[in-house]
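dumping this here so i dont lose it
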């Protein structure tokens, strides 16, 4: 199993740390009971995804083989939870220069791209890199009304029709709701291959649904091991004992840290492969925990700002702030074993302040810099904890991502908020609809058109 070391969160390690006696409270066990009693229900269907998808997984594996046999490019159209998981797992488990390798070196997997924005330059640039006749597009939107994704869909289908005629539909796979929304209607009308997102699985909790599993399988990622790792974490975190449940403990210590003024959580992986896990976690944590009101309607304005950092790169930028700036951060180190050992040449140079590196390895350098940074932050009384993966593979990555999702669920329960809605996001979406003149948003459009009496523009 991955390891969770929270020693440096306690007052035995740092002056402003947490008293162990404060970890155990009635709110902790109430939160545990609430999450576990709702497992598999409502918007917590995501919890059972590691165990209940045997038929779906087989369909995905069969489809992935067909894609590999017939297409040289695989493009995901999606945004937020429909894209970030794919980007994170692709970067973690595939060759870091996957798209630059010849197809045989990629294990027959196609080149992989994710369009997760409405940026026109990025859209145009994609078509400079792919051949439409050899590209499969996976359009992912549960509602079928996501403006960014559906605009991409309209552009892509228009080009495919011009290029391929009636056969264009063989180049689109829809991943969406089975029961409602625009995309499922289009999929049925045009006979697209379709995978379904369970109704109780929100975007940021969908990485182990077909949203993530299909792209992963196309890329030869072992999705069975990925789900097995997640299932193992489910078992571990079913314990009511705080000291044996890493997801519950991580939620509790973050809550206690927030109570001490640590409103920023920095996730700092020490591996390029894990860089985008931090991006995925930022959405999960921010959208789930940042809420204005609790379930009773009381204004609470809770949340902790997630920040992404990369070791050792950001030791030369952000760590200065973490070590000497405000005491408002928790730094979460994410360390892992490496498959590759890269030795530094033994031959000495004429520079004494470089010779200590000779004969060592890059692995030793990475590990030493992480340990040194952790020591320095602890010495400066900065709260931090460490998550350790024995290596970066599908099994351990499944454990890690499921633990983060469970931690988020427990944190939301501790705060008594709706972990699964995003009213702040919806406000921006509605304003966009109004600006585009969408029917039903006329009053909001009028409000947006009002020019303030005073404007201050330089």
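and the seq i came up w/
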């Amino acid at each position: 199993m991955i390891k969770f070391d929270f020693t440096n969160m306690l007052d035995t390690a740092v002056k402003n740390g947490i008293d162990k006696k404060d970890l155990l409270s009635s709110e902790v066990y109430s939160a545990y009971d609430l999450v576990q009693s709702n497992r598999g229900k409502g918007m917590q269907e995501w919890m059972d995804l590691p165990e209940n998808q045997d038929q779906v997984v087989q369909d995905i594996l069969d489809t992935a083989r067909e894609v590999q046999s017939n297409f040289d490019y695989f493009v995901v159209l999606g945004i937020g939870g429909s894209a970030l998981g794919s980007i994170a797992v692709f970067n973690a488990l595939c060759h870091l220069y996957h798209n630059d390798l010849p197809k045989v070196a990629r294990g027959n997997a196609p080149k992989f791209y994710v369009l997760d924005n409405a940026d026109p330059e990025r859209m145009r640039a994609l078509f400079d890199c792919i051949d439409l006749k050899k590209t499969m597009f996976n359009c992912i939107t549960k509602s079928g009304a996501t403006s960014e994704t559906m605009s991409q869909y309209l552009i892509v289908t228009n080009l495919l029709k011009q290029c391929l005629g009636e056969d264009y539909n063989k180049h689109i796979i829809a991943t969406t709701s089975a029961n409602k929304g625009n995309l499922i209607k289009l999929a049925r009308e045009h006979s697209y291959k379709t995978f379904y997102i369970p109704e109780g699985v929100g975007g940021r909790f969908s990485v182990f649904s077909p949203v993530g599993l299909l792209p992963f399988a196309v890329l030869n990622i072992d999705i069975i091991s990925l789900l097995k790792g997640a299932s193992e974490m489910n078992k571990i975190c079913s314990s009511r004992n705080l000291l044996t449940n890493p997801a519950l403990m991580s939620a509790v210590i973050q809550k206690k840290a927030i109570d001490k003024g640590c409103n920023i959580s920095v996730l700092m992986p020490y591996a390029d492969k894990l860089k985008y896990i931090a991006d995925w976690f930022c959405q999960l944590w921010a959208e789930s925990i940042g809420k204005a009101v609790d379930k009773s309607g009381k204004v609470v304005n809770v949340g902790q700002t997630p920040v992404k950092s990369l070791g050792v790169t950001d030791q030369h930028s952000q760590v200065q702030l973490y070590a000497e700036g405000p005491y408002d951060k928790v730094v979460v180190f994410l360390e892992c074993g490496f498959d590759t050992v890269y030795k530094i040449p033994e031959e000495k140079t004429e520079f004494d302040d470089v010779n200590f590196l000779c004969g060592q390895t890059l692995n030793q350098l990475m590990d030493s810099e992480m340990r040194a940074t952790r020591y320095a932050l602890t010495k400066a009384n900065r709260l931090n904890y460490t998550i350790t993966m024995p290596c970066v593979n599908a099994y351990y990555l499944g454990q890690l991502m499921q633990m983060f999702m469970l931690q988020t669920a427990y944190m939301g329960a501790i705060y008594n908020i709706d972990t699964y809605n995003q009213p702040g996001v919806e406000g921006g979406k509605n304003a966009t609809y109004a600006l585009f003149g969408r029917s039903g948003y006329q009053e909001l459009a009028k409000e947006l058109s009002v020019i303030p009496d005073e404007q201050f523009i330089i």
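The chain has a mean pLDDT of 95.
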